[in-house]
Write a structure and sequence with these properties.
Blueprint lengths: L5 H30 L3 E3 L1 H22 L6 H21 L7 E3 L16 H16 L3 H27 L5
Length: about 170
């Protein structure tokens, strides 16, 4: 390993930038949903999600900035971003990083027609693709396992929330 890998730095900046934009969108949508009478469920474990993603990004930055890129995995990450856009577009103002329910039927368009919790599947794939793009196999394994354990609780809470919504 030599010096800085420009490709790795660009990928890391892209990932961090994407996450920051998502947090801004999520905050705006959360405020709007709560103003419409929404209520949050699963707040007790939200800090785990924040901690996991912060640790993942921190680990990527500390371990990945000198790594040469594996372009096939970069391609996987970019394809996943098309999926993220589809998810965000499908949920519109109801997309947030928290579980906020409003008295409206669940969204049934976009990827939600085909699979439950597509955003969680996409995030799980990202937690693999980005470290793999940097050759950090151990990061992909460790954070995938941590995320899977956390998602058990998260999906249980979200399913409870979805069951409380009116039918379409």
């Amino acid at each position: 390993m030599g010096g800085v890998s420009i490709g790795a730095v660009v990928l890391l900046v892209l990932v961090i930038g994407q996450r920051l934009v998502e947090l801004r969108i999520a905050k705006r949508n959360t405020v709007a949903l709560l103003a419409r009478g929404g209520r949050e469920l699963g707040a007790d474990h939200y800090w785990l999600i924040v901690a996991l993603h912060t640790a993942w990004i921190g680990t990527l930055v500390l371990s990945g900035w000198q790594q040469p890129l594996l372009w096939g995995w970069v391609g996987v990450y970019l394809v996943l971003q098309a999926g993220r856009f589809w998810i965000l577009r499908s949920l519109g103002g109801r997309w947030t990083t928290r579980i906020i329910i409003v008295d409206e039927p669940a969204i049934q368009r976009g990827p939600y027609r085909f699979v439950r919790h597509p955003n969680y599947w996409l995030v799980a794939a990202e937690l693999i693709a980005v470290p793999m793009a940097l050759g950090l196999y151990w990061v992909a394994i460790v954070f995938t396992l941590l995320n899977a354990a956390m998602m058990v609780k998260r999906i249980r809470a979200e399913n409870t929330a979805l069951a409380s919504l009116p039918e379409a």
